[in-house]
Every structure is written in structure tokens, then in C-alpha cells.
Predict the 3D structure of the following.
Amino acid sequence: MKLIKSPALTGLFILISLSLAGCTSKYQQLSKKPVEKVNDHVATVKEFSNQLARKLKNFDALAAKDPNNVHRVKEDILKDFLVKSLTLDWARSQNIVISEDVLDKEVDKLRANYPDDLAFRRSLAQENLSFAEWREELRYVLIEREVFKKISEKAKPITDEEIRRYYEDHKDLYKRKERIYIRQIVVDEEAKADAVKLSLKNKDFAEVAKAYSITPEGKQGGVVGWIEKGSVDYFDRLFTAGAGIQTVKSPFGVHLIRVEKKAPPSTLTLEDVKPQIVRALKAQREQAEYVAWLDAQLRSSKVLKDYDLMNSITVDTRG
């Protein structure tokens, strides 16, 4: 039995449970054995084990040892490697290449999300990744994006008839309940609410909200916007309340609410929802093209998986 430890994990180890009689040379040979081969791409035991450790790092010790979780993660690794290999092969056949300049710009863009280089390097260490490894993973993400774009170009345009039919088939999704448009001021005590309510008699609601409201929308003059009936239980009585400022208590404090508009139940028109229908149909069509493409790549590729070797890689959480 030989041990591979992932530095990214605390107390989590990946064990290759084969009888090696403590022989280092046999272990080294084993670590280079392929768990999966896709054409000329190879995922070795060592690479597979490192991937397993990385994917299990967010599990607690008990969940990381659960056979169902481990099996599911292993299957995901096999699938990811298969798709990645097929994608890279097809990209090569289509002369899809990510230049160093393009990659460097993407690297700079992502690094800019971190406060400094130390925070960026720390995030890589937490994933047990070197900068070079992360950079190559990013290169693949960009290649994958270009491949999907090229595949999606084969998708047929969406017709008006398809849009209309989708709308009719999914009309229930576009129904709206009764709605109200509200502004609010939220304070933490009833005494403050009473004082604020008095000031509203001769002051602008929006200005008072900016000055006193403790919730984020106070900075925007207390605008909450449209609320559907039934979406927030402590607001439901506002639908039948009279005119004027209404007081509502909630776990967040005391709300002083002004209902500015009311809208009856309605159904969004086809024109209202046409853009989102087009997006939904386009996504469906592109996904169908991708599935067909993936199936074609699989049929023309040589894929070998060593399940016995994969199953011999087990997880232990001994510290």
C-alpha cells in the first residue's frame, strides 16, 4: 500500500491500495500507469489521484470517505478527462490555437480580481496548483470556449413559429400575480419609527430614507420595487391596506412603507418575453449540437478505462 498526500488538504490522504511490498520502484511504475487513455492522451494514476484529492478537498473527513461520494467524483474525473481530450484533439484538427498574447491578457484580467499577488498565489496554493499548471488550465478554458462557439455556429436560426409555439407551451411561466411597487424606511426600534413617521409629514420620503433607513435600499431613497403577492409574507397585508404610510414589523426591524403603484394579475405578452424565449431556444439548440458533436468524437476515438486500477485508489482521512 502506497500513500499519495495532497498538500492542499488537511488530514486527507489518497491511498493506492495495491500490494507493493514497500518497493519504491514498483510504486513509481504504478504511479505512471494509465487509468484512462483517450487517443494519445493519458491520465496516470498519479495525475488521477491528484485530481481526486483536489476535488475532495471541500468535503469534510466523513463525506470524503463515503464510497458513494468517492465513486461519483472518480466518474466525474473520467468524464472530464474524456471531454477535455476530445476537445483538444478537435481543436487541433480545426487549427484552434490560443496565442500567448491572448492567454497573458486573460491571466492579467483574472489576477486583477485579487487584491495583490500574494492573495493570488495563496488561492493557487489552496488548490494545490502551480502557476504554470493554472495557466495551462486557463488555456484549455479558452480553447473550450472557442470550440463551443464553432460548434454552435452550426445551430439553425430560431424561427418566429418556434418562438410562438414555445410561448404557448410555457404560458404558465409568464403569469404574474397581483403586484405592488413600494418604498420603505427600516429602523430598529418602534420609537424611532414613530419619530420618522412624524417627520414624513413635511419631508420627502426619499430623503428621509437616505438619512435613517438601516437597509441597503435606503441609499436609493428606499425603493424596493415591485413585490408579488405571496412572495414576502409580512408584506401581504399591504395589498389590502388603505392609503398612507403603513407600518410593518419583520425580523429586520420596523418598516415604514409607502405603496406607490398597484398592478392586477396579468400575463406577459409574447413581445415582453421574446428575448428570453430566444435565449432558451438558442441554448437548447446549441446544446443539441454539442451533444451530437461529442457523440461523433466518441465514435471516432479510442477510449480505454482501467476501472480495476481506478477502484484500487482509495481515500483515507488519517492525520
Confidence is low (pLDDT under 50) at residues 1-10. The first strand starts at residue 2 and ends at 5. Residues 123 and 269 are 47 Å apart (CA to CA). The chain has twelve helices and twelve strands.
